[in-house]
Design a protein that fits this description.
There is one protein chain. Helices cover 48% and strands 17% of the residues. By secondary structure, the protein is an alpha/beta fold. It has an eight-stranded parallel β-barrel with strand order 1-2-3-4-5-6-7-8, surrounded by eight helices. β7 (191-195), α9 (200-206) and β8 (212-217) form a beta-alpha-beta unit. It is globular and about 45 Å long. It starts with 5 loop residues before the first strand and ends in a 5-residue tail after the last helix. The structure holds pyridoxine-5'-phosphate.
Length: 246
């Protein structure tokens, strides 16, 4: 029997709300605990270079929580010396390398792995040697999938942002792109994850792609939490992913 597709709950935007007032509420660690109790399989957090949401002390506390709970922490990070040192210090289950531009509102596109093959290979070696799974956040493009395998990543996370935004025929084309990239990645021995912009509907749609083993979802779940609570939002996403409800 294949394992169920894992749900990584990205709690960055709990920290965004907290930081709006500079205090300690709402606490992303409390949110992470609730997300895990409600059906999340792991926690994802992006330590951005500008620390606009998650902070270094959040990563320390989330590492401890995940270690105690025996659940994976997926640390999203830019490929910089500073971030590599932080990852090697905390040794999360996985490091998901993402492109980062200071002026962007959110991660806008995937990595250009092929263009940074040397740095990617060195980072993948260092992280893998520390027992950290290396995931590369890429657009669903064959060249990037192939480059990810070549630099030694174990995982690719396919960027679902375009698919989520596209409507009509374009939506179907984007889904097909994701499916083709997932098939290629799986064939090259990479584990396939997907994320960005997913909601109940689009998560159910991408789950039609059989190679996908994990979804990482943040903004929608934290937004839904305002209306129905974080535990209910995570539980409903879990049910959608299990095909229990739509
Ligand atoms: N996966 C990656 C690599 C991301 O950068 C993000 C956004 O931080 C997500 C998943 C989650 O995207 P969203 O918050 O839109 O669900």
């Amino acid at each position: 029997m294949t394992e169920r597709v894992r749900l990584g709950v990205n709690i960055d935007h709990v920290a965004t709300v907290r930081n709006a007032r500079g205090g300690s509420h709402p606490d992303p660690v409390r949110a992470a605990r609730m997300a895990l109790a409600a059906g999340g399989d792991g926690i994802t957090a992006h330590l951005r270079e500008d620390r606009r949401h998650i902070t270094d002390s959040d990563i320390a506390a989330l590492s401890q929580l995940c270690a105690e709970a025996g659940r994976p922490l997926n640390l999203e990070m830019a490929l910089t010396e500073e971030m590599l040192a932080i990852a090697l210090r905390h040794r999360p289950h996985a490091a998901c390398l993402v492109p980062e531009r200071r002026e962007e509102v959110t991660t806008e596109g995937g990595l250009n792995v092929a263009a940074q093959a040397g740095d990617m290979t060195r980072a993948a070696r260092a992280l893998s040697a520390a027992g950290i799974r290396v995931s590369l956040f890429i657009d669903p493009v064959a060249e990037q999938v192939e480059a990810s395998a070549a630099v030694g990543a174990q995982v690719v996370e396919l960027h679902t942002g375009r698919f989520c935004h596209a409507v009509g025929a374009e939506h179907d084309i984007e889904l097909k792109r994701l499916a083709e990239a997932a098939r290629l990645a799986h064939g090259l021995g990479l584990e396939v994850h997907a994320g960005h912009g997913l909601d109940y509907e689009t998560a159910a749609e991408v789950l039609a792609i059989p190679e996908i083993r994990e979804l990482n979802i943040g903004h929608f779940l934290i937004g839904e939490a305002v209306f129905i609570g974080l535990d209910a939002a995570v539980a409903r996403m879990r049910a959608v992913m299990d095909g229990v409800s739509g």
